[in-house]
Amino acid sequence: QSTMSDRKAVIKNADMSEDMQQDAVECATQALEKYNIEKDIAAHIKK
Asked: How far is CA 33 from the centre of its chain?
């Protein structure tokens, strides 16, 4: 079983600053650690 620390975000194409990309990755990582249901993950990221 893989844990979040085993996974690495891959940013393929982005037209935003490095800082903004890092914030987006952190937000998504927090959502994935906190929730198991896609709907809840999406709701967290939208906030």
From this structure: 9
